[in-house]
Specification:
Length: 526
């Protein structure tokens, strides 16, 4: 949660009464999207910017400049973005009037980020926008392009004088937003950081992990630290283990080349999943200052028990989907996907047993799994409490007496929180049933939740990096996954891995069940 959140809610128990909104306006700016012809711009960035405009959260003076190699006029770009908005942003109300006004601030340039002379054209365009739209020379550069172009683009911007280090309150300011992946291991991530820090100070750098922009993810801190009842239980004395699941029914779609290089460990675990682990595991920050929160997140990741390269198979399972059935439809295996090698050893599933070696979490396992082409699309965090210490209802409950209380934070879909507890069934007989006390965002608030990108772009405009990954956090995450990657690379060389090892539409490889089963637990049936 950021300090400079633009809205301040007045607590009111009647959900039909909305909180009062107090606004902080962002400075005027131009946002330069490098890779504006890509999927991310069409599906996420433009809809998020339009949604902010509709909610009157953009400053009066702003401009958006799309860059990519494809030749296109401003008008063609506006039409393309309008069509994408209608196609991909079904949760937004399209208003022609609002769009027409918004579109007047949209511009496009065809540019090759590898050619220095193209930066001169970008500079002239930004000067023009400064005069026409009053952007005051504040520029946000959004790198939504192939990661191989990150470093050349940053160097190009610096050489053209478009980007430079500045002090926290200095204006005009350049900021940079970097999409994941931040490198592909610790060494390359450090290399990328070096290139970034030659041109930008850390406070100008916004590394996007869109999970941090999700409402339900931000709510983890509120649940933990705005309520008095959970935190006393939030430790090894009362928590048996934690399960974090990210399951997708989708396959790799048309992202074969990217995914072949990345795999599930780099694509999901190193970033999104470890962010969730850090939010569940962190200590309360000393204040809502953005650095205080990020400090605590880094601290907990530093406590992750190192998995030795030699012992990876004791704590980690990888899988790759074969052909199967999803929602009644037959789907091909990963190796048959478009632009994927028929001999690929890339993992599409990963399950890890991890421990946080500190006082709070001593001996509590965190089981984390993520995979594509699984039986259901769901992301959740389940805190499983220890069973009651004395089994008073042993005779009534039988084996059920071992049932634990669960607190489940459902990240998506059906965002909400539920608590499972035992209750007496009405009637003369003494019977006990396990029930869920459910809170659902949709039903409770009845308002649309902003998309993760809306929140993150807005925070960047306000200069608030709380919900962005800091460089030391990225490094410590890579340090955790690097030995796993190294061990797999060795196994691959020795042809030790037999893929595919799970059917599309299942819950992943059997070894993942064994991983958790060996400790006496089982994955939640979702
Ligand atoms: C992205 C990954 O970062 O997150 C994708 O690259 C994945 O492979 C996606 O599908 C999942 O995001 P969400 O918000 O749908 O859970």
């Amino acid at each position: 949660m950021s300090q400079s959140v633009a809205t301040q809610d007045v607590v009111n128990e009647d959900p039909s009464v909305q909180g009062i909104q107090v606004e902080h306006r962002a400075d005027p700016f131009a946002m330069v999207i490098v890779g504006a012809h890509g999927d991310l711009t069409k599906r996420k960035l433009l809809p998020a910017l339009y949604a902010l405009y509709q909610q009157n959260l953009l400053p009066k003076d702003f401009a958006i400049l799309g860059l990519s190699r494809t030749p296109m006029s401003d008008q063609e770009f506006r039409v393309l973005m309008c069509d994408s908005l209608k196609k991909f942003a079904s949760d937004l109300k399209f208003e022609q009037d609002a769009w027409d006004k918004f579109a007047k601030s949209l511009y496009y340039l065809s540019a090759d980020m590898g050619k220095q002379q193209d930066y001169d054209t970008i500079t002239s365009k930004l000067d023009e926008l400064k005069d026409k739209h009053g952007t005051e020379g504040n520029n946000i550069f959004y790198l939504s392009t192939a990661p191989s172009l990150y470093t050349p683009t940053i160097k190009g911007l610096a050489a053209a004088g478009l980007a430079k280090k500045c002090k926290p309150n200095e204006a005009p300011w350049p900021r940079i937003i970097v999409e994941k992946p931040f490198g592909h291991d610790l060494t390359s991530s450090e290399g990328l950081d070096e290139a970034i820090h030659e041109t930008f100070n850390e406070h100008q750098v916004y590394r996007i992990d869109h999970y941090l922009g999700k409402e339900t993810v931000q709510n983890i801190m509120v649940l933990r630290f705005a309520n008095g009842i959970f935190e006393p239980l939030w430790n090894y004395k009362y928590i048996d283990h934690v399960q974090i699941t990210n399951a997708e029914t989708l396959g790799v779609e048309d992202r074969g080349p990217y995914y072949e290089e990345s795999g599930c460990l780099r694509d999901m675990l190193q970033n999104h999943m470890l962010q969730l682990v850090s939010l569940v595991g962190m200590e309360p920050p000393i204040s809502m200052d953005h650095e205080a929160t990020r400090d605590e997140k880094v601290k907990v990741l530093r406590c992750l028990r190192h998995i030795e390269k030699e012992n990876v198979n004791e704590s980690v399972v990888r899988g790759q989907y074969g052909a199967g059935t999803i929602d009644g439809k037959k789907v091909v295996g990963y190796r048959q996907e478009n632009r994927v090698s028929p001999e690929s050893n890339t993992e599409t599933f990963v399950a890890v047993k991890m421990f946080i070696d500190n006082w709070r979490w001593a001996g509590v396992p965190f089981f984390v799994r993520s995979g594509k082409r699984l039986a259901k699309s769901i992301t959740e965090i389940a805190i499983q409490f220890r069973p009651a210490p004395h089994r008073l209802f042993r005779d009534i409950l039988g084996a059920d007496g071992l049932n634990p209380n669960n607190l489940v934070i459902q990240i998506q879909p059906d965002e909400g929180i539920s608590l499972k507890f035992a209750t007496k069934q009405p009637g003369q007989a003494n019977q006990i049933r396990w029930l869920n006390m459910d809170f659902k965002y949709g039903a409770a608030f009845g308002v649309r939740s902003p998309s993760a990108y809306e929140r993150l772009l807005y925070d960047c405009m306000l200069g608030d990096p709380s919900l962005f990954a800091r460089t030391d956090q990225v490094d410590v995450s890579w340090a955790f996954v690097d030995p796993i990657l190294a061990s797999w690379a060795e196994e691959n060389k020795k042809n030790k891995i037999k893929f595919p090892n799970y059917e599309a539409g299942s819950w992943g490889p059997k070894e993942a069940d064994d991983l958790i089963g060996s400790t006496g637990f089982s994955w939640r049936r979702l």
